[in-house]
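Figure 2 data, in text form.
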Amino acid sequence: MSSSRSMPIYKKLVQEGIVKYKLHEFMERLSDKAGFHCVEISSTPIRDIITVYVESPGVIIGRGGRTSKRISDILREELGIQNPYIQTKKVDEPFLSARIVASYIARRIAKGERYKKVAYSALRRVMAAGAKGVEIRLSGKFGSQRAREERFRDGVIYKCGQDYVENVEYAVKHVLMPQGMIGVRVRIVKPGVRGPDAVIVKEEAIEEIRERIRSEVESLSESESIEIPEELEEELEVAGEVERDESEQA
């Protein structure tokens, strides 16, 4: 990113942060139909490489790369990025991205589809993609004068704590309808997340304990002999004689 060499470091960091925020906002607005997930920028001595993660990379590239060239010109003029190079990457599983799911719901509601049908469809596709949990919240006016909120939820959703910060992806989208604005909020817990209540069985530790117990039992059987009390020996002799007599009589 272009920055003056005489500029203090803290000002340079602030300026880079502002450029990244504007770039994210610009690409999200521009790539809405392409299914925008996120954008990254890395600077090299030659150029600034901008990587856009979307559901449909062809929308960003355009025919013969015309759309990406036009985007580069806009970034150069509006954000001051001197030599931008745009590359796109396809998101492996779009329905594990909260932004893509929120955009999907917003687009279909804007087309006039029933909000419950759209929400349940998105819910099923997110869980089918392997998510541990998903929550969709729609708020606004749904055919009546009074606004309300509808919640659709499946699986496990963390609402607070470190699990929420680390494992929950959150996105918000707004749809302008004739009756007013409708808000779409999506929370997704991605697969492979281990919750705080998960029980962990340490097989290695259990196997070590078994080996130790087995070795102790073997050493006891080899080195130590059990002392039998005299009273018990006499009772055993009497029992043996009675058993022999019974066998002879039989």
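Caption note: The beta strands are 36-43, 48-54, 84-90, 133-140, 148-155, 168-177, 180-189.
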